[in-house]
Write a structure and sequence with these properties.
alpha/beta; 6-stranded parallel β-sheet; globular; 10 strands; 12 helices; two-stranded parallel sheet
């Protein structure tokens, strides 16, 4: 068995990487009005060149820009969709970690005009990334899935005067995503990842309770999300590999939901028309591998066995044992290896060092080489 030549790769990663201190300082200066946009972009460009080189040096076959130009993995994209705007209301997300609780507050959103793609989102960012990757390395673009536009506020965030029939909202949203996929393909993108916490959150009974309280159909919402992602990618260009990443929250080494993939597994794995699933399996809160029995032949599963939430390095023997356990449910040739999530889903980053990040990526590459050849 050899390394794969098309995404997802045997050794891969989710997307976001720790921001270097000079980039964080530049962003702070820009926010304070001490640095102009062109100067900030020059500093971002330099940081991205460095992090792309790091990914190549550890032996990865793909590279992202680390999401270095973003504040968060999803809202920087969502707010650029036509018809979507931030509001003065705040959303509280309750995270947890080994030390206790950590709350995160951000702006809510409102959909007060027809959803549309006004221009290619992250188009210039991807073009720069593609220009600096080494030959033979695939530039990967990560964007939030269509589900995330809805999950944040539900039906209550959609102006009924704009969308008296919610079906039209879903049609417009999928059409906007389909246009984004075509346009980034035209820029040279061959590896697109749809990041989605909602399909993992819905496995947690507490999350389903919260959605029910706000008036959503929590018991069936995953089915709607699967249909809409499929609608968005069904006409994707030939040669564009699409994966999805599903985790239970990632903010400063904390998480928001718990539980295995059991609740969504049968519909998710048998119906979602992506080429591969990046799945979080780094500890007990992520559940076991049994839900993978629903993965059909030909679909790839990227096992997120290496945690990004702490710096302690996993052992190769443990990773190989867990890969063997997963192979009881999915053939080994359909498996790959990655971290369980990004290292810096928001600009703050997780609680580990750059050297620890590099060590984890190197471990993934070395383990994949030993398992798959």
């Amino acid at each position: 068995m050899t390394l794969r030549e098309t995404p997802p790769f045997r050794a891969d990663h989710v997307g976001s990487l720790l921001r270097p201190p000079d980039l964080l300082q530049a962003r702070a200066r820009f926010a304070a009005g001490e640095l102009d946009a062109d100067s900030l972009r020059e500093i971002e460009d330099a940081a991205i060149r460095d992090v792309v080189r790091m990914q190549h040096d550890v032996g990865l076959q793909s590279a992202t820009d680390g999401e270095f130009r973003r504040t968060s993995w999803h809202m920087d994209f969502i707010y650029r969709l036509g018809g979507v705007r931030p509001t003065d209301d705040k959303i509280q997300v309750h995270f947890r970690n080994a030390e206790g609780k950590l709350d995160f507050e951000s702006a809510a959103l409102a959909i007060d005009a027809p959803v549309r793609l006004s221009s290619t989102i992250f188009g210039d960012d991807f073009a720069f990334l593609a220009s600096v990757v080494s030959p033979g390395v695939t530039a990967k673009l990560t964007i939030p899935s269509p589900s995330m536009v809805h999950y944040r506020g539900g039906r209550a965030a959609i102006d009924p005067a704009v969308y008296p029939d919610e079906e039209q909202f879903w049609a417009d949203l999928s059409a906007a995503y389909a246009a984004e996929a075509r346009q980034v393909f035209d820029l040279g993108c061959r590896y697109l990842q749809l990041d989605d916490t909602s399909l993992a959150y819905l496995n947690d009974p507490e999350q389903r309770r919260l959605l029910t309280e706000r008036g959503d159909d929590a018991e069936h919402q995953h089915l709607r999300y699967i249909r809409q992602i499929n609608a968005a990618i069904q006409d994707r260009p030939a040669g564009l590999s699409v994966t999805t990443h599903m985790c239970r929250g990632n903010f400063r080494s904390s998480w928001a939901a718990e539980g295995g993939y059991d609740f969504v597994a049968e519909a998710l794995f048998s119906e979602l028309a992506v080429d591969g699933f990046f799945l979080e399996f780094d500890d007990e809160r992520s559940g076991g591998f049994a839900p993978l029995r629903f993965v059909p032949p030909g679909k790839m599963v990227v096992l997120g066995l290496v945690t990004t939430k702490r710096g302690q390095l996993e052992s190769k023997d443990t990773l190989k044992r867990r890969i063997d356990e997963a192979a009881k449910y999915v053939p080994l040739e359909q498996l790959c290896l990655s971290p369980q999530c990004g290292f810096s889903s928001t600009v703050e980053g997780n609680v580990l060092t750059y050297d620890e990040e590099v060590a984890k990526l190197s471990l993934i590459v070395e383990t994949a080489q030993e398992v798959w050849g």
